[in-house]
Backbone:
């Protein structure tokens, strides 16, 4: 952490930190303790313009969800992409196909990476379901963090509660002096900071647009870094939960992690620069750029999926195919990978009829056989999966 840049911060202060690292021995260094968020913020006119553009982008995304007969076209692909890319930002890289295969009953082995990504998917589904009835709180995020690592091979210390141990951000196996950032010390000051964060978020500050509030709250959460692990994933999920709670969106279709992954260096740099300078403008502009571009991308790709679905229906109708094959086609938006046995069980048909349905969809190039063999074959809607990868 560049102490010379951050020591004069107007939004926090360096505080002494003494501890011991099992790899590098005892240390005496500094942590950055962020002050509570302000009730008001002064922004340049160009930044207010970006806030207005991001607000409009969220409105377009919400209208797209409302107008679609099946909002899964927006919600489910967004969730897959968020699960993959929010984990990739933390160094856990997985593939969409592996994530989809994890939901097949025939899958008996999951890699640690897939289990971790799938855990986030499970947590996100639960969180977006309960946030309408529960306030966004430190307690809720603690529950989500605990669930995120519940089945992990190695659980972080202080699971499910605000950490009581020192952490720092940077390259693995490097000493604290070479870290990129050292967040708040693990004592009462961190708990006080998180309590203030919760109060600020729940107050809503109606004079500030929801997008701006989300940008400010995300900065504060990541800067305090309350957990032993999972801060990035939980923090980015909290953005969606805050927007849902503030009624800025009505469906959990927005996903920012793909943009932050593509602009990882800028994302990390602007978070740190905000702590150094106290100037909200660069960080808020970057956050709004993520919102604008991701909303537009989601809407565009949902349109592609809708066109693909309509064209595929016409192909079925032209061949006078009827029955459960239409349900299978429509469900490929949410489950674009299947097997004969999975299809038979899901739609209550025989193995013979399931095979016929899949063969029909292969014939019109809706499904593609993806295993290259004759045993335990898996079939995927490659257009759907490719569209998700483009989000």
Residues:
């Amino acid at each position: 952490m560049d102490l010379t840049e951050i020591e004069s911060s107007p939004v926090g202060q360096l505080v002494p930190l003494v501890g011991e690292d099992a790899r590098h021995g005892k240390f005496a260094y500094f942590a950055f303790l962020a002050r509570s968020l302000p009730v008001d913020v002064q922004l340049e006119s160009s930044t207010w313009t970006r806030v207005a553009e991001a607000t409009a982008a969220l409105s377009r995304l919400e209208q797209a969800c409302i107008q679609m007969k099946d909002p899964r076209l927006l919600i489910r692909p967004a969730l897959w992409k968020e699960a993959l890319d929010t984990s990739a930002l933390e160094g856990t890289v997985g593939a969409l196909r592996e994530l989809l295969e994890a939901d097949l009953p025939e899958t008996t082995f999951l890699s640690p990476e897939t289990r971790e990504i799938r855990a986030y998917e499970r947590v996100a589904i639960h969180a977006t379901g309960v946030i309408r009835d529960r306030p966004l709180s430190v307690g809720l995020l603690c529950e989500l963090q605990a669930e995120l690592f519940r089945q992990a091979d190695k659980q972080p210390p202080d699971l499910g509660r605000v950490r009581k141990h020192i952490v720092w951000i940077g390259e693995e196996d490097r000493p604290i002096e070479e870290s990129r950032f050292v967040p708040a010390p693990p004592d009462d000051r961190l708990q006080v900071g998180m309590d203030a964060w919760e109060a600020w978020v729940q107050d809503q500050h109606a004079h500030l647009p929801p997008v701006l509030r989300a940008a400010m709250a995300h900065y504060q959460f990541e800067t305090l870094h309350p957990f032993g692990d999972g801060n990035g994933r939980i923090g980015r999920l909290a953005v969606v939960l805050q927007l849902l709670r503030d009624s800025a969106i009505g469906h959990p279709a927005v996903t920012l992690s793909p943009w932050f992954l593509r602009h990882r260096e800028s994302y990390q740099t602007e978070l740190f620069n905000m702590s150094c300078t106290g100037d909200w403008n660069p960080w808020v502009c970057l956050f709004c750029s993520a919102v604008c571009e991701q909303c537009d991308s989601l809407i565009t790709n949902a349109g592609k999926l809708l066109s693909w679905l309509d064209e595929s229906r016409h192909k079925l109708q032209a061949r006078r195919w009827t029955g459960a094959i239409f349900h299978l086609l429509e469900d490929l938006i949410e489950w674009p990978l299947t097997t004969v046995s999975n299809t038979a069980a899901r739609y209550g048909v025989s193995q013979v009829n399931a095979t016929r349905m899949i063969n029909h969809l292969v014939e019109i190039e809706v499904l593609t056989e993806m295993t290259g063999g004759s045993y335990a074959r898996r079939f995927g809607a490659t257009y759907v999966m490719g569209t998700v990868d483009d989000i």
